[in-house]
UniProtKB/TrEMBL annotation:
The keyword NAD does not apply. Keywords: Isoprene biosynthesis, Magnesium, Metal-binding, Transferase. This is Farnesyl diphosphate synthase. It catalyses: isopentenyl diphosphate + (2E)-geranyl diphosphate = (2E,6E)-farnesyl diphosphate + diphosphate. GO terms for biological process: terpenoid biosynthetic process. It holds the Pfam family polyprenyl_synt. It comes from Enterocloster citroniae. Belongs to the FPP/GGPP synthase family.
C-alpha cells in the first residue's frame, strides 16, 4: 500500500471515529421542542470533512502522543459551532443557498424560521457540550486549562472572531471589498475557528505559551489558504463534487480573493501560504506525520 493510500485509509478511519464521538453528544429528539432538535441533528449529520475536530485532536496528539479525554467534548463543540455558521450562511438573508453537502440546506428543509433557531441552538449547545470537559478531571491544572480552552472557543467564535468576520462580510456584501478588509474577513470568518481548534488542542495538551503562539500563527495560515482554495473551487469546481452550488460568489456579486487577485495568483498564494504553514509546524516539538499530510490535503482539496 502506498503512503497516499495508507494516509487515505487512516483519514477515513479517524473521520469515522470523530463522527461517532460527535454523535454521542447530539440531543435526543423528544419533547415539545422536538423540531429544533431534529433540525440541529439534521445539520450536523449532513456530514463534512470534520476538519476542525480533527485538527484539534491531532494537535493534542502532537504534544501528548494521545487523545486526552478532556479534548473530546471540545471536538464535538467546535463542529457544532462550525455547523451553526453554515446553517446561518445558507439563509435567504445571507447567501440564499438551498443546498449544502449534497442535501437540502437546513432552512430549505425546515423553513427559514427554524433555520435561524437551529443555528442559534447549535451555538449555545456547543458551549454546553464543551463544559462537559470539566467532568473529565479533578486535577487543578487540567481544570484551569479547560477553563482557558472555553475562553478561547468563546473569543474565536464571537465578535472578535468568526461573528466579527461575518459581520464585515455582510456589511460589504454586493459591493467592492478592499484587500485589507477581505483579509480581515478571511482571518476571522474562516481562520478564527481553525485557530480555536488547533489552539485548544495545544492548550489542553499542555503546550508551552511560546508553542501556543506558533500554533496560532500556523492555524491562521491554514485558515487563509483554506479560504482562498474555497474561492478557487467556487470558480473551478463542480456542484456534484463539492456538494453545493458553484459560482454562488459571482451570483451574489461577492468580492473574493480570486476576483481581487485573479485565479492564477490565488493558486500561487495557496502554495506559498501552505509552505509557510508547514515551516511553522516544523518549529513545534514532537512529530505528527498524519497532521502534516492532513494540512497538505486540506489546503489542496478539490471539494
Amino acid at each position: 500500500m502506498s503512503d497516499k493510500e495508507t494516509f487515505k485509509k487512516e483519514l477515513n478511519e479517524r473521520t469515522a471515529e470523530i463522527e461517532k464521538l460527535i454523535e454521542t453528544y447530539l440531543p435526543e429528539e423528544t419533547g415539545h421542542q422536538k423540531t429544533i432538535l431534529e433540525a440541529m441533528n439534521y445539520s450536523i449529520r449532513a456530514g463534512g470533512k470534520r476538519l476542525r475536530p480533527m485538527l484539534m485532536q491531532e494537535m493534542c496528539r502532537l504534544f501528548t502522543g494521545c487523545l486526552l479525554e478532556s479534548v473530546i467534548p471540545f471536538m464535538a463543540a467546535v463542529e457544532m459551532i462550525h455547523t451553526s455558521s453554515l446553517v446561518h450562511d445558507d439563509l435567504p438573508c445571507m447567501d440564499d443557498d438551498m443546498m449544502r453537502r449534497g442535501k437540502a440546506s437546513t432552512w430549505a428543509e425546515f423553513g427559514e424560521d427554524i433555520g435561524v433557531l437551529a443555528g442559534d441552538a447549535l451555538m449555545m449547545y456547543a458551549f454546553e457540550t464543551a463544559s462537559c470537559a470539566f467532568e473529565t478531571s479533578v486535577d487543578p491544572d487540567e481544570l484551569s486549562r479547560i477553563g482557558k480552552a472555553i475562553g478561547i472557543l468563546a473569543r474565536k467564535t464571537g465578535v472578535y472572531g468568526m461573528i466579527g468576520g461575518q459581520t464585515v462580510d455582510v456589511e460589504l456584501a454586493g459591493g467592492p471589498i478592499p484587500a485589507d478588509k477581505l483579509d480581515f474577513i478571511y482571518h476571522l470568518k474562516t481562520g478564527a475557528l481553525i485557530e480555536a481548534s488547533m489552539l485548544i488542542g495545544a492548550v489542553l495538551g499542555g503546550a508551552a505559551d511560546e508553542d501556543c503562539k506558533i500554533v496560532e500563527s500556523l492555524a491562521s495560515k491554514i485558515g487563509m489558504a483554506f479560504q482562498i482554495q474555497d474561492d478557487i473551487l467556487d470558480v473551478t469546481g463542480s456542484e456534484e463534487i463539492i456538494g453545493k452550488p458553484v459560482n454562488s460568489d459571482e451570483k451574489n456579486k461577492k468580492t473574493t480573493y480570486v476576483t481581487l487577485e485573479g485565479l492564477e495568483k490565488a493558486k500561487q498564494d495557496v502554495e506559498k501560504i501552505s509552505a509557510e504553514a508547514i515551516e511553522e509546524l516544523n518549529k513545534l516539538p514532537g512529530n505528527n506525520d498524519f497532521l502534516e499530510q492532513l494540512i497538505h490535503l486540506l489546503i489542496h482539496r478539490q471539494k
